[in-house]
Specification:
This protein has 429 residues and is of the alpha/beta class. It is built from 10 helices and 26 strands. The chain folds into 3 domains: 189 residues, 3-Layer(bba) Sandwich (FAD/NAD(P)-binding domain); 115 residues, FAD/NAD(P)-binding domain; 86 residues, 2-Layer Sandwich (Enolase-like, domain 1), CATH 3.30.390.30. Strand 25 and strand 26 form a beta hairpin. It is globular and about 65 Å long. The protein binds flavin-adenine dinucleotide.
Length: 429
């Protein structure tokens, strides 16, 4: 772009105001990217939590274990927002998005005009519509305040029942075991993480947790939470089994926080529907992070990804697209988890019945209670759809390249894929 045009664009920005709703990872990273790209207009960052924007992964890991400090998860300290002239409205909920008037109204009555708005409202936890859900001792985990409440009750010999063997359920189960609690996990599916990982890798997660003393109850739902004087005492399963409980952790998933977008009349399709530029059905409103579903060029399907990597990348991508020229958003979906001695990263997208074989580099088995060291690939017609490195590091770039090639229909030699002696980077050459 000629220098003059760029100068015009930047000076026009001085009168612009970008309002970002949702002050967590995606929202804060968007504000950062706006300033880095030279945006000189006003930025308002609105967050319902009375906390500086922070990252959530430590809440079910190091922070819950008392190892990571509270400030460790902050995206930036308070001085950064002041220095960057980012107006924080913390402890404030945006109640109305008026796309005709180009305003966002907050719960204290403040009305903020915008030239562009970004919805980074994330997710809210799902709950269970069963008896006893409101008893004291029943917890969910999304915010740092939730983590503080939970951390205070995870003590040696506390009887913990976790409902749901997804990522949050398993990570909190691991943390509870490390605190010395007895832990039961109830899951309606026959294995943990089954829909995300498929049978083979799901079985490894079961074995790992069992080796660490977790008792699973698979293939059964929860009927109700028993209680005495308003405090939970047990969890009653649909098959009649009663598990004594001092603490219950409900980890049955999340739903995108679409209320504001819905009320504004924006298109919703498994979250706030955006195009490949992360623009919603209103051209001046964008969305990113957990709340947004985008048409993935990689997979050819609409995706909504409820993971850290998508907030980290999606915020800056939306920011750049709002001030233009930007570029289409097309990441390889990525997430990570830590449980006991297992650390893993996963890249790609492979539905439970969407692959025809698993290829492993190394042994996937849990041996002597220890997590494996290996790389697992989900493969269809010889093409890599997804890969997970477990306690093997510095291979993500290669895995993501294999996933991109796989989705472009380029098969790899599966014998070489399984051979740890062949560098992953050589498989595509
Ligand atoms: C305990 C925990 C552990 C996790 N661990 C991992 C992990 O190990 N690996 C991984 O890949 N991912 C992990 N995740 C997922 C990851 O943290 C999320 O994908 C990420 O937080 C999404 O960021 P976000 O900014 O899009 O939304 P969120 O983090 O959900 O933040 C949205 C913010 O918007 C605010 N908000 C919503 N509506 C309004 C409104 N109307 N007005 C004002 N504010 C509003 C909310 O209060 C919230 O603060 C974990 C999540 C949790 C809860």
């Amino acid at each position: 772009m000629p220098a003059g045009r760029n100068g015009d664009r930047l000076s026009r920005m001085e009168t612009d105001q970008i309002v970002i709703v949702g002050a967590a990872l995606a929202g804060a990273k968007a504000a950062e990217a706006l300033r880095e790209a030279g945006f000189t207009g006003k930025i308002a960052l609105i967050g319902a939590e009375n906390e500086l924007p922070y990252e959530r992964p430590p809440l079910s890991k190091g922070y819950l274990l008392g190892k990571d400090p509270r400030e460790g998860g902050q995206v930036h300290d308070a001085d950064w927002y002041a220095a960057q002239h980012v107006d924080l409205h913390l402890g404030r909920t945006a109640t109305t998005l008026d796309t005709a008037a180009h305003t966002v109204t907050l719960d204290d009555g403040t009305t903020l005009p915008y030239t562009k708005a970004l919805l980074a409202t994330g997710s809210r936890v799902r709950t269970l519509d069963i008896g006893g859900i409101d008893n004291a001792g029943v917890y969910s985990l999304r915010t740092v305040a939730d983590a503080d409440r939970l951390k205070a009750v995870l003590k040696r010999d506390t009887q913990v029942v976790v409902v749901g063997a997804g990522w949050i359920g398993l990570e909190t189960a691991a943390a509870a075991r490390e605190h010395g609690c007895t832990v039961h996990v109830v899951e309606v599916e026959p294995l943990p993480l089954l829909r995300v990982l498929g049978d083979e890798v799901a079985a490894m997660f079961r074995d790992l947790h069992q080796a660490h003393g977790v008792t699973f109850h698979f293939g059964v739902g929860v009927r109700e939470f028993g209680g005495l004087d308003g405090r939970v005492t047990d969890v009653v399963l649909e098959n009649g089994v009663e598990i004594p409980a001092d603490v219950v952790i409900v980890g049955v998933g999340i739903r995108p926080a679409t209320e504001l977008a819905e009320a504004a009349g924006l298109t919703i399709d498994n979250g706030v529907a955006v195009d490949e530029m992360l623009r919603t059905s209103d051209p001046d409103v964008y969305a990113c992070g957990d709340v947004a579903s985008w048409p993935s060029k990689l997979t050819g399907t609409r995706l909504r990804v409820e993971h850290w990597g998508n907030a980290l990348k999606g915020g800056p991508a939306a920011a750049k697209n709002m001030i233009g020229p930007g570029e289409p958003y097309d990441p390889v979906p990525y997430f990570f988890s830590d449980q006991y001695d297992l650390g893993m990263e996963y890249a790609g997208w492979a539905a439970r019945h969407g692959y025809d074989q698993i290829v492993t580099r190394g042994d996937l088995a849990v041996a002597d209670g220890k997590a494996p060291e290996c790389v697992v690939f989900w493969v269809r017609n010889g093409c890599v759809l997804a890969g997970m490195n477990i306690n093997v590091w510095d291979v993500q770039d290669d895995i993501q390249a294999l996933v991109r090639a796989g989705y472009e229909g380029k098969p790899v030699d599966l014998g070489r894929l399984a051979d740890p002696q062949v560098p992953l980077g050589e498989l595509l050459t």
